Amino acid sequence: MTASDALHINGVCKAYGPHTVLNDIDLVVATGSRTAIVGPSGSGKTTLLRIIAGFETPDTGSVTLGGVQMANGPTAMPAHKRGIGFVPQDGALFPHLSIADNIGFGLARHAPDRADRITELMDMVSLDAALLKRWPHELSGGQQQRVALARALALRPALMLLDEPFSALDTGLRASTRKAVAQLLSKAGVTTILVTHDQAEALSFADQVAVMRAGQLVQAGPPRELYLHPKDPAIASFLGESMVLPAQLTKGWADCALGRVAVSNQQRIGSAQIMLRPEQLHVALIPTVTSIAPTERPSVYGSVVDCDFGGAECSVTVELAQALRVTVHCPSSTAPAVGTRVTLSVSGNAHVFDSTELSVPPEEPQGPVLASANVAAV
């Protein structure tokens, strides 16, 4: 552990009877950074958060915060002594207390600067001080979440834990509240861990994303790295729409059901699985002149069999040879009609999964899969 590491989790295991919930978890969170822990239901992410908070104790392993050991196996520091802020999913405001008393709940009631601190916290979370006299039920969902955050920030915690705090909000409010909270925590320099099942939320909120599966931490790193270079097909599908195809690799190229596609791995040859993201696929009407210059990548021809209007964007399903169907996103203004013959091309490089990762069984995807992984290569 270095001086820049706020939190260090080492070898944490947790079981309830015969059921193992966490298996040898290692995770490092840098001071002032934002980490999102994601995974399907039952993956162990909330249990890990509760162990960090001190609501649960690990069977084995340690949790160290700012150089101070919070837990070493079942021997653990009580939650109220850890200096950790916690915001649960529903905010958990006290309904019988005013907003001012909710925010100041952890502050000494007769402290001379208590009122000033409460007003300062309201300003930090961008709420009008006039709301201090109201009751929780008189505030909107987004306002309640900000009050819960202000209450957690009151004692200047070394670490902030957020347990799916935006899940109950409407879509538009959810995005704006998430962005505001991220900016607030960064400005305050508070180290933060967010637990969520929403992959888009994790990718936009965090500096580091940690993916959990069946009680194990399967990959952690910067959001862009995990999105573009996931370790296995299951992680790829969990973090967003993906197309996973078998291919034959030769000197930086992959021959697959989409034709010849460039890959970033220049040395790998032979059989492999490759992944493409939907933004790499492009559909266009067949041009009058169909000849392709030798330096251009060849396009694949197909027919539009479905077009799902979604406002500014359409999801277009194209059927290629061997009944392979591929879904492509394109602007509604240029979406081809059903029955139209089109070309499908690929931009950028496909990601190549390591051969040791091909045996990982894909889980039920969290987002639509663009094509099945068992499509025969051409």
Give a description of the structure.
The chain has 378 residues and is an alpha+beta fold. The protein folds into two domains: 5-225, P-loop containing nucleotide triphosphate hydrolases (Rossmann fold, 3-Layer(aba) Sandwich); 241-357, OB fold (Dihydrolipoamide Acetyltransferase, E2P) (Beta Barrel), CATH 2.40.50.140. Helices cover 20% and strands 34% of the residues. The chain has eight helices and 21 strands. The strands form four sheets. A six-stranded mixed beta sheet has the order 7-8-9-3-10-11, sandwiched between helices. The chain has a five-stranded antiparallel beta sheet with strand order 2-1-4-5-6, covered by helices on one side. The protein has a five-stranded antiparallel beta sheet with strand order 14-13-12-15-21. The longest helix has 18 residues, at 171-188. The protein starts with a strand and ends in a 26-residue tail after the last strand. The relative contact order is 0.12. Residues 7-239 form the ABC transporter domain.
Short description:
InterPro entries: AAA+_ATPase, ABC_SmlMolc_Importer, ABC_transporter-like_ATP-bd, ABC_transporter-like_CS, ABC_transpr_FbpC, Mo/tungstate-bd_C_term_dom, P-loop_NTPase, Transp-assoc_OB_typ2. With 378 residues, the protein is of the alpha+beta class.
